[in-house]
Protein 1
Amino acid sequence: MPIPGLLDTVGMFDLAAALPEQVAAAATLAADIDNLPDQDAVENVVVLGMGGSGIAGDVLQAIAGPFMAVPVTVAKGHEAPASVGPGTLCFAISYSGDTEETVEAAQAAAVAGARMVLLSHGGALAELAREWDAAHVALPECPMPRAGIGSVAVPPLVVLERIGLFPGAAQYVADAVHQLRRRRDALIVDDGPAQRLARKIGGTMPIAYGGDALGTVAAYRFKCQVNENAKAPAFWASVPEMAHNEICGWGQHGDVTRQVMTVVRFRHDFEHPQVSRRFDLTYDLLDEVVHAIVDVQAVGEGALAQLLDLVIQGDFVSLHLAAQAGVDPGPIPVLTDLKAALAD
């Protein structure tokens, strides 16, 4: 990246720039796995995962969920939903394969009789897959799970297509790769749009708003990336929900919020018309009480292309926020220490 003196010991900028190729490669990871159930045997789909791996469930729910004849549940915690049973197709996703919550929830789902598809680079999930003779998607090595969103999010979509629950996934992925390459080429230039947006946010705290399921996933992803890459506070909410409660919270303390908060709106072409109206109608209310309002606009053919277009833009903004603060985006010592304390 053309940033003098850039502190990036893990190479997070390069990993973000490689997202198009990562998504393309991820489409092949689940092409040959065995032990998948027949379509008629699946009554519901459950996705287990945490953090940078767990967001794969949010992507699946936003992209495939609206077109599937069976419900999708995303569970982030130690327990599998009570609805899990022999008719459940359960994805358990952990890049390391050792995420405590995911391993425990996967074991509970397997005991309940779910048909398991485990995704990991190795670890306990890989061992459980062998023990259970369950389908296992071997993920490629990645230094930070949050940099592997394509690797964890695409294979479940491919599995759903192979079973017959989500026809057209391959075209969705191809369209996403095309758009990601175009967007990547625009982002990696000096003084590109993500760098300019990061400067506009400056030292303020971003409040990310996303419309409907697609925009909400992008807003949540951005919030997490700012937390982990820039090591800074960030918050998120969904539209239309924020227009029923959170908007009231901007009624006071404008003299404070104008100094410390910037609204980042993640917009896309699949917003419900009334959601778009809510974005328009709340603009002036927010503009009076925040440092700035900035939009991240999706482009691309299909919902997956637009979601990942928002993701790569948000990822680069978070990395530029880290760069302008002199923060190394890779290491996450707080999480490392917390996991070590939990292990004790």
Protein 2
Amino acid sequence: CVSARGCFPRGKYWLCHLVPGLLLAGLAMGLFAAVQTESNYGYVHSAWHVLIALSVLLLLPEEKGPCAQEG
């Protein structure tokens, strides 16, 4: 934080990555908990996998962040 003169994550990262990632994960959990039945299991479970994968993609830190190793 001292050498970069700011701490990670910055405001833009929160807005573009963390908030959408958490919203997608929350939507996936909501689908899993409230919508899934035996008759629609395949569709809801597939949608759950897609939403969780997208949320993980958004929530992973950037490679060039202050914690990334140089070299």
Protein 3
Amino acid sequence: MPLPRLNGTLTPVGAPRYDQLFTDQLVTVMLAVGFDEYGANRPVDGEVEAGLLARGFQADPDAALARLAAGKRPAPQRPADHFLARDITRDAASRPVDMVVSLVRAGDGSAGGDAGSAFLEGLNRCEIAAYAGHGRYGTGPDFDYNFTADLVDEHGTIIASFSEYRDLEQALHDRAHANKRTIFAEYRLLLRQGRLVIRRVNSGNLVVNLRNYHADEFGSHLMVDQLKTDPNVRRMSKQHFDRKYRVWLFNGCRTHDYFLNLRRLNPDANAGGLDLIGTRRVVYWSALGASLLGAIDGIVYHDDYRQLLARLAAVNPDDASDGETGPSHVADLGQRP
């Protein structure tokens, strides 16, 4: 039986509630760039900052914090880079609207827990929050390495070490082929024998759900296994969110996997109105900076949701690598008053 899920729609009706987003002529945005074990996030870090500056934002944290205070918005409580753009758009009464963007970047992953905390804080504090990074097989955003693993011999001597999914997967594939087993059987057997020693690195993980929507992919089993056995992992369902209207955008492979649990497990966030945008197929790091900046442009130009999805699809080309074709993003909109 297939797991329950919300797939979202390619043809959403309506637009963000700009009257609520632009209260006091100010809109606040959290942008976050997650972590990639091969360093693909680092160019995105610079691209997003350069894109903000090119759009007229100032890297002036004091001015940004002062504008938040003047607009009766809560002050950030976690480290981030803050940018301010004055008169970047207009409200329904043609009055100028300023935008404060808080940018969180995982960087080298060494402070993934802090980056995750800053993103969580921004999810609650800001009207709009957007993440770009790995979807981690539908489990949630992530800001650091997932694991390190050692393969040991029968005497406990390390014969190989891994910190990336694909390297471990290839090693297990080769062993499985030699032993005439599936890679999943090889993985489970080595765990039982104590010959595959995995050390969790979950401080940067924000767990939306632990449903394994990708059971045919080895990495999903490793990901879910490690998160399920970690008593300290941060679950989105345990977070407190104020009741207010907000928009959340998740740019990562197949992040519509998040929708069902975000609807079921966060009643406070949903009570004030929560519009969700996620991906329905594989997307690539090379497009993630443009996706975050495209979200900024969509708000500035008052896109409705169909226009915003088209804007995102335009910078996320379709190569059918995962069997899915067509536009990259879908929306699942909260209840309208």
